């Protein structure tokens, strides 16, 4: 089975490492400036340039049996053209919907799945009216595209923060990177108790399997760690999480792995965002589930039966290993490995805050896990 | 961490695939004619030739941090010379002991661990006396070296089979491949109930972790499938298995993964043979244990803490996928994948009886597992 992947980051790396044992072959499509260290050695790389036709890309990738993506920020028209040559999963239409927050929220709301109250505004449209309509401050403003890990987001909780956003908007609209149209959504800033995420896979024949929801902790928009199962998640909330992802997978005819991030607010579960791909909050599945999200994504897109998604006993933790400083040296922090921890290292160059790897922790209980988290927090300072 | 592996077969492949996620780098030492398809793409390959010094080999392997082996049939003098440059685990001395059945049995017996009664004979020494000393027919004669998967073994249960062996011995001693000295061991053919194996790992600091013993079924000397845990293994037998491997690891100062195959005969547990490496009967650990034998071998030889060896709940099966005919086409039999099965494919050319891959099966109970075995037995005929 030959799989072409759009993107050359750690998600592509882990997809390839999940497929190699099964005898799968991989090729990767890189943007003009994209670093490829993560996937070096795992398959051939085609570097996209503006002169390439879809046929060139398909041939360059070695005529794969199927093409998939490791990110939502991709060239959707190209993906659509590639469908002439082989299946592209998830379908470019669903990637197109999710890569824009306006379309994404419209999709979720259209299925009757709850979201924080939101409004959209464009260009120089007044934002104050939209804020009033969703119930006043505090709110979060997000650009509809190109937002990830907290980028292009503004928390507005005062006249001052609103004015600061307005100034930045004006600069953006006049700046050299201005494109038409500029669009933002404004969301009620939910006083949520916590964030959970749920990951599921659907195969072309309609089979759906869902992983145990986990709880995520962020710092400045970047995932720090996840705990699986999400501690003390009530039965009704658990069922809601499963119901949301089931409907999203089923109603959109989705193929592959989908991730859904949700806010828990009392007895309410509100969708925050979707990712049409394997997801950071599912990295625990490599060591903590019968079948990893990466293997299940590959099984789904190649029409193989999905693998069991049951999580192992005990409590599972996932900790992102973030770069501390600039360094081209990418030595794996082997010293973090213990009897119950599993290191996954991406071979990247280090930059402050960059995700360089992660550790999965298989613990007996939550107490043992939080001990590991504490130890790791201190140990992280040793990462280059 | 850079690891050099002597050998380019499926065990090297699975070692590399276990190390890549941790950021390990690999290089492989191939015999002059050794096929390398299993490890293609997973690291650089050095092909041994008679002009090479140990320094040449070490440099060719890219100055690894540690060197290990995927088979016991290796050039031990070369391994000893490589110790000048980096650690070689397991130690060449223990590989040397185990690569010869006479030395192997002497080692096991020396630790007071039970074996089938055995005798050794060389060249044209009379075999009848040895047979009488160990209690008469039936016996098994095995050459002391170069025996694996049933090769170079003779079951002697009658005057006719003994005469046939004598003829073959005479031919061997006169043949072009004759080397000095020829040596065989003759073993009482135990009317054993079944064969189990136990796998353990020891790190340089003396930490030892042991996997759950499994039961193995062979056909003409080749492992067909394993079931883990070994069904209905009594407490005392279970403890004996753990005790044997613990003593072997501890008393020899072993570093890495060791496999011990044993015969169960009533309440007795007799060692059949050792393997100073990851072992076919441990392939289930990739999907069925918290840490695979491959990752634990790498952890051990790089002085990292061993990973938890607990097996997952339920019953785990491992089925070898054997080639049916000659074919250079090595298409993975994806059709064998189900929700509870995991395919591991080695990318080899197919030959009748050759191990081309294996399937791990995670089942609820033994009944479900034997259903899978039956299905797979039929499905195997479809493998190239």
Structural features, described:
- The structure is a homodimer of 384-residue chains.
- Chain A is α+β, with helices and mostly antiparallel strands and 384 residues long.
- Chain A has 3 domains: 2-88, 3-Layer(aba) Sandwich (Rossmann fold); 117-188, Dna Ligase, domain 1 (2-Layer Sandwich), CATH 3.30.1490; 194-382, D-amino Acid Aminotransferase, Chain A, domain 1.
- Chain A is built from 11 helices and 17 strands.
- Chain A has helices at residues 10-19, 54-60, 76-82, 92-98, 101-110, 128-133, 159-174, 235-251, 285-288, 293-301, 366-379, and strands at residues 2-6, 25-30, 44-47, 66-69, 118-122, 139-143, 153-156, 183-188, 194-202, 208-210, 214-219, 222-228, 256-265, 268-275, 315-322, 341-345, 355-363.
- In chain A, the strands form 3 sheets. In chain A, strands 9, 10, 11, 12, 13, 14, 15, 16 and 17 form a 9-stranded antiparallel β-sheet that branches.
- In chain A, helix 1 (10-19) packs across helix 10 (293-301) and helix 3 runs antiparallel to helix 4.
- The A-B interface holds A 1, 14, 17, 20-24, 41-42, 209, 286-287, 290-291, 295, 299, 302, 304-308, 312-313, 330-332, 334, 337-340, 342-347, 357, 362 and B 1, 14, 17, 20-24, 41-42, 209, 286-287, 290-291, 295, 299, 302, 304-308, 312-313, 330-332, 334, 337-340, 342-347, 357, 362.
């Amino acid at each position: 089975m030959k799989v072409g992947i759009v993107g050359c980051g750690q998600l592509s790396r882990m997809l390839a490492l999940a497929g190699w044992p099964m005898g799968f072959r991989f090729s990767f499509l890189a943007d003009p400036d994209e670093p490829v260290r993560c996937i070096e050695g795992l398959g051939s790389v085609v570097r996209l340039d503006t002169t390439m036709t879809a046929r060139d890309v398909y041939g360059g990738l070695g005529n794969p049996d199927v093409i998939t993506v490791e990110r939502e920020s991709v060239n959707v028209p190209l993906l659509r053209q590639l469908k002439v040559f082989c299946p592209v999963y998830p379908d470019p239409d669903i990637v197109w919907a999710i890569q824009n927050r306006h379309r994404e929220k419209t999709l979720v709301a259209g299925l009757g799945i709850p979201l924080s109250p939101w409004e959209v505004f464009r260009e120089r449209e007044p934002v104050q009216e939209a804020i009033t309509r969703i119930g006043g401050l505090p709110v979060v403003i997000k650009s509809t595209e190109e937002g990830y890990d907290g980028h292009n987001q503004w928390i507005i909780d005062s006249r001052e923060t609103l004015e600061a956003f307005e100034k930045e908007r004006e600069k953006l609209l006049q700046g050299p990177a201005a494109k038409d149209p500029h669009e933002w959504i404004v969301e009620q800033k939910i006083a949520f108790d916590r964030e959970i995420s749920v990951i599921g896979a659907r195969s072309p024949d309609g089979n759906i399997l869902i992983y145990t929801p986990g709880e995520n902790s962020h710092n400045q928009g970047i995932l720090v760690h996840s705990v699986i199962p999400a501690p003390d998640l009530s039965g009704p909330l658990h069922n809601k999480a499963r119901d949301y992802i089931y409907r999203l997978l089923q109603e959109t005819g989705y193929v592959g792995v989908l991730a859904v991030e949700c806010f828990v607010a009392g007895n309410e579960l509100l969708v925050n965002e979707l990712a049409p791909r394997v997801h950071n909050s599912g990295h625990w599945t490599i060591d903590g589930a019968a079948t990893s999200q990466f293997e299940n994504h590959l099984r789904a897109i190649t029409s193989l039966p999905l693998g069991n998604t049951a999580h192992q006993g005990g409590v599972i933790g996932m900790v992102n290993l973030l770069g501390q400083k600039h360094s081209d040296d990418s030595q794996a922090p082997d010293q973090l490995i213990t009897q119950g921890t599993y290191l996954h290292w991406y071979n990247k160059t280090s930059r402050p805050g960059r995700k360089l790897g992660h550790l999965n922790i298989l613990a007996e209980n939550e107490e043992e896990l939080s001990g590991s988290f504490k130890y790791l927090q201190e140990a992280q300072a040793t990462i280059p």
